[in-house]
Input
Amino acid sequence: MKRSTSIGSAVTALFAFERGAVKHLATLALMFTFGVVAAYAHDQPVKMTFSGTSETSATSLAQPDTSNDADNFAGAGTLGSFTVRNIRAISNSPGTSSTCSGANDLFLTELAGASVFRFEDGSLLEMTLTQGGDCIDLTTGLAHCTLMFQITGGTGRFKHASGTLTMTETVSTVAADALGNPVFFVATGEFTGKVSGVTATAARQEEQP
Output
């Protein structure tokens, strides 16, 4: 009888241990699931500075009455060191803007474009231009540009990325063609906004260039 009681106690203890182990594993699985969701759902403020060159582009976006511009920038910031290439279709006809209304200012609307970042780990971040414009001071030759981009995804840690970034830049002319048309430029500026869908552990803060 004593032996039967001992066996019964052992079986009860074994079942209790198994139930505890299953509960522990379930808790870990739940924590992991919520952790992954939280990591990808995180809405992260972004600030990245850049510098580089712009030039007239041979690639055309086929937008009527536009000139095509190509940017080649490098920089660093919230998401790490990067290079970025933009292609933009800029209207040839002056527009109007409340923030670009000086006597010597010329405002040109940006009608279409796209952007691709490449980061140190090989991940790509892809964006499309949603709106933008260039305010050109005809006296100094400086242009101040503001462009809004929609993030459409990417590769690597940006495979599930979404959000919006705003690019602000200051541009000056380096060279013009034989007719006096500016064709090659230097630019400095920054990207700011919010990005979701990037694992929190992958993003890092770096020194500004």
Remarks:
- The beta strands are 44-56, 66-77, 82-91, 105-119, 124-137, 143-154, 162-176, 182-196.
- The two ends are 80 Å apart (CA to CA).
- Helices lie at 2-41.
